[in-house]
Design goal:
By secondary structure, the protein is an all-beta fold. It contains no helices and 28 strands.
């Protein structure tokens, strides 16, 4: 079946929404995830795509063992903090991370107990309390943890999260370090920000920026949000792009040569805001989903060559996940 996969959509104000048939029909989760809560982070487990973590505003973490049909609350000291990102160690999936506003938390026993991470982020950043928008456990070495901060650049731990260093600035403007999306591939570190797409080939010590074309001549810049790497071909990457935040128009930018050149994919309906987030899954590498901040969901089942817009529309989308059925 072409639509034999599950899509999960986390929203602001409409909680968690799950479709087990590729977006044809939808269910809203009501317990224990409240139907009108905020879900800002979703992550499938690397060893079991039917196992999924979700992070909320003020309600901590939730986990599903059955592809999003049912959920359990994970006890944690996160309290009333917002969870902006979640990560799972691919070498030991009992180790999980939650990126919060600010800093984050780590569990080494699957969520039974937690350590508060002391990262040393700048608490006087331009958006007030900074947000840990991305956390990645390095697949090359589980002791190396990467964190992207909104607005404080990239932090790195070499000892599993106990101690952190603030890597060099990504550019001259503080918002060069307003990290929105992040990925590791091709022995490089990739980040997105309001300015565009940043690449480091030296483990975050220096950065090169790619600036996407502006949508309008009067735009300050071409704004970027989430990014993903194609699991079976890391030269192919996708970036959510738009005129500003929340924006009135957007696109999905794609590269087939590891970021050297980019072009927007052909979406059937013009996005109604910045394309905020994207999702894929190693088990079904040709399925790609993208969502605008204002509720449109697009799906490709051929690696991003052709797309459909789902009939279902949401309010404000903040997170996406895809898993095989």
């Amino acid at each position: 079946m072409a639509n034999d996969f599950t899509i999960l959509v986390g929203t602001v104000g409409q909680g968690m929404n799950v479709s087990g048939d590729g977006g044809e029909t939808w269910s809203k989760i009501r317990n224990p995830i409240p139907s009108e809560c905020n879900i800002r982070a979703l992550r499938t487990y690397p060893d079991n795509p039917h196992r999924i973590l979700a992070g909320s505003d003020g309600l901590g973490l939730f986990r599903s063992e059955d592809n999003g049909v049912s959920w359990e609350s994970i006890e944690s000291p996160i309290g009333d903090l917002q969870v902006w990102s979640v990560a799972v160690d691919p070498a030991n999936t009992d180790t999980i991370f939650a990126g919060t506003r600010p800093e984050g938390f780590r569990s080494r026993d699957g969520g039974k107990s937690w350590d508060k991470l002391t990262m040393g982020v700048d608490m006087n950043c331009p958006v007030g309390t900074p947000r840990t928008t991305n956390m990645i456990v390095d697949p090359r070495d589980s002791n190396t943890i990467w964190a992207g901060i909104e607005v404080d650049g990239v932090y790195k731990s070499m000892d599993g999260g106990d101690q952190w260093v603030h890597l060099p600035e990504l550019g001259p403007d503080p918002f060069h370090g307003d990290i929105h999306g992040m990925a590791l591939a091709n022995n490089s570190v990739y980040c997105t920000s309001p300015f565009g797409f940043a690449t480091s080939t030296d483990e975050g010590e220096s950065w090169d920026y790619h600036y996407f074309p502006k949508f309008n001549p009067t735009d300050v810049r071409s704004y970027c949000r989430g990014m993903i790497v194609k699991p079976d071909n890391p030269d192919v990457m996708f970036v959510g792009n738009g005129d500003f935040i929340p924006g009135v128009i957007g696109c999905v930018q794609r590269t087939k040569d590891a970021g050297k050149t980019w072009a927007p994919v052909d979406l059937p309906v013009v996005p109604n805001s910045v394309v905020y987030w994207l999702a894929n899954n190693p088990e079904i590498p040709n399925v790609v989903a993208a969502a605008t901040l204002f509720g449109y969901v697009y799906v490709s089942t051929d690696g991003g060559d052709t797309w459909i817009k789902l009939q279902k529309e949401f309010g404000e989308i903040r997170s996406l996940a895809i898993s095989p059925n």
